[in-house]
Design a protein that fits this description.
Layout (H helix, E strand, L loop, with lengths): L2 H9 L4 H20 L9 H27 L3 H23 L5 H21 L7 H32 L1 H9 L4 H13 L4 H9 L7 H8 L4 H31 L11
Helix pairs in contact: 2-3, 4-5, 4-6, 5-6, 5-11, 6-8, 6-11, 7-8, 8-11, 9-11, 10-11
Length: 263
């Protein structure tokens, strides 16, 4: 058996014990969310969300594992798969930020940073145009943009709703609607950058991220694995900064807005 396969098996063997551990951990997460009512309305909703998310992850990863080997050998399928990742991210962001078809505008903060950065990486030869490299790199960047967009959008809209009086006061002293919303929304939305900043600041000291461990298991040297991980972290910071800035601008211009909850 090849050394990388042996290393991966030693790290986390795929057997009955792993299946049992996954079920137990998912039950623990769902139970804690239910007992402590970790939902905005103090309901058990988050417990159900956690259980559904865990099952969906298992199904989706199983399907992707079967499909990915075929996708990487077909150019058209590769592009379609990347577009599927982007579409799901845009829909998820829109659903989390707004309560209507906001996914159309929620796609913008994801596309604006990811498309040019991936294009530049492919163009300069750092990322080859094949599925083995393109799919994981693009997926990481789309995931980072999704997280930043959702956090920034939700924080900005929550802040505008809670401090609507201050927005009205800004308008009363002559500020334009965009400027008034920016004054309130921008400081809150900037918190969306904190998870990426903390991850970058503590890399190697608190955790060893997935790209680093994956490279090591694949047989790469620690120096090469470290270089790849550094690239991923810096690229993520760039993507997330652009995503947050774009999200704040869309909120300030009224493009990303939340439909009132039904009475």
């Amino acid at each position: 058996m090849p050394a990388p396969v042996l290393a991966a098996s030693a790290l986390l063997p795929v057997n009955t014990a792993l299946a049992v551990a996954l079920v137990v951990l998912l039950l623990v997460a769902a139970t804690v969310a239910a007992v402590f009512r970790l939902a905005p309305d103090a309901s058990w909703r988050r417990s159900r969300d956690i259980a559904v998310a865990g099952v969906r992850a298992a199904v989706q990863l199983g399907v992707v594992s079967l499909v990915i080997g075929w996708v990487v050998r077909h150019g058209a399928a590769l592009i379609a798969f990347v577009l599927l990742m982007f579409s799901v991210a845009a829909f998820t962001a829109g659903r989390r930020i707004t309560r209507d078809r906001g996914w159309v505008w929620a796609a913008v903060p994801i596309a604006v940073p990811v498309a040019p950065i991936v294009g530049a990486l492919v163009g300069c030869g750092l990322v080859p145009l094949d599925g083995i490299a393109l799919i994981p790199v693009t997926g990481i960047l789309i995931g980072g943009a999704l997280t930043a967009t959702v956090l920034a959008g939700r924080r900005a809209l929550d802040e505008l709703a809670a401090r609507n009086g201050e927005v009205e006061a800004c308008l009363a002293i002559g500020l334009l609607p965009r400027e008034a919303r920016l004054e309130i929304a921008r400081p809150a939305a900037s918190d969306a950058l904190l998870p990426g900043l903390d991850q970058t600041r503590t890399v190697g000291l608190v955790t060893l991220p997935g790209a680093f461990v994956g490279m090591l298991l694949g047989g790469a040297s620690p120096v090469m694995a470290g270089a790849v991980q550094l690239f991923v972290l810096v690229a993520l910071m760039a993507v997330q900064a652009i995503a947050v800035a774009t999200t704040v601008e869309l909120v300030a211009r009224g493009r990303l807005r939340r439909r009132p909850a039904p009475a």
